[in-house]
Amino acid sequence: MRERSDYELMLLIKDRQHLALSILYDRYAPLVYSFAMKALKDEQASRDIVQSVFMRLWTTGSEYKPDKGRYTSWLLTITRNLTTDWLRKQRRETNSRLTMPWEQLQQIPDHMTLSPEDRYERDSLHAEVRGAYQYLSSQQIMLVEHFYWQGYSLSELATLYDQPLGTVKNRLHQALKILRRHLKTESERS
After folding, report:
1. Domain boundaries, the chain
2. Topology of 6-93 in CATH?
3. What is the pLDDT of residues 77-120, one digit of tens each?
4. N or C: which end of the chain has fewer CB within 10 A?
5. Which has the closest alpha carbon to 52: 70, 25, 73?
6. Among candidate residues 32, 174, 144, the one with its CA nearest the CA of residue 166
7. Residue 23's CB: how many other CB atoms inside 10 A?
8. Are 37 and 45 in contact (CB under 8 A)?
9. Does domain 109-185 have CATH number 2.60.120.560?
10. Could you report the per-residue pLDDT of 114-162, keeping only the tens digit for each?
11. Where is the RNA polymerase sigma-70 region domain (predicted)?
């Protein structure tokens, strides 16, 4: 049964086949945990999200449609939604009080403490990089966004995009070459 596709396993879950859920859990629990951990920075909450995601697959008979996209994208959409719900619930329960330890609060970048010059420089650079996105394909933009702005690892991206690690590295390298070339051209014009 382990060699079955994700779609076939989802059909078996609808028929209440416990082993199918177990196989999908073994395949994707680390990815779901990693995604939740990046957003929540809380091990217990991330484990709870993993449990909730797979419980949702079991209890609601969530329907994955392969013609609408990759299974990992669909699964991470469920994860993102549950993570967002968890964050909203926490916010409501704490009535907007801060619940993070002081050490974590100190690590949050405070853009308000930047000098006006530093803020201008940061915003200009960010706008310049985004302006160069016009030379990238939508897939390259997503890859750059996920890796550099959202903190995904290369192996997580390989799983997310369902591509070999070498392919992901190569595509990221090609996107960076294009960005470098166009950013250099822009700076020479200035």
Report:
1. 6-93, 109-185
2. Rna Polymerase Sigma Factor; Chain: A (1.10.1740)
3. 889 888 888 887 777 665 444 444 545 544 444 444 555 666 67
4. C
5. 25
6. 174
7. 19
8. no
9. no
10. 556 666 766 676 677 777 888 888 888 888 877 776 677 788 888 888 8
11. 24-92, 138-180
| 39-80: pLDDT as tens digits | 888 899 999 999 999 888 888 766 777 887 888 888 888 898
Q: Which residues of 134-166 are buried (b: 16+ CB within 10 A; e: fewer)?
A: eebeeebebbbebbeeeebeeebbbbbbeeeee
Distance CA 123, CA 76 (A): 30
For residue 80, how many C-alpha atoms fall within 13 Å in the half-sphere facing its CB? 6
**Amino acid identity at 179:** L
Would you call 187 exposed, middle or buried from its count of C-beta atoms within 10 A (0-12, 13-18, 19+)? exposed
Torsion of CA 19, 58, 88, 31, to 10 degrees: 30
What is the distance in angstroms between the CA of the first residue and the CA of the last residue of the chain?
61
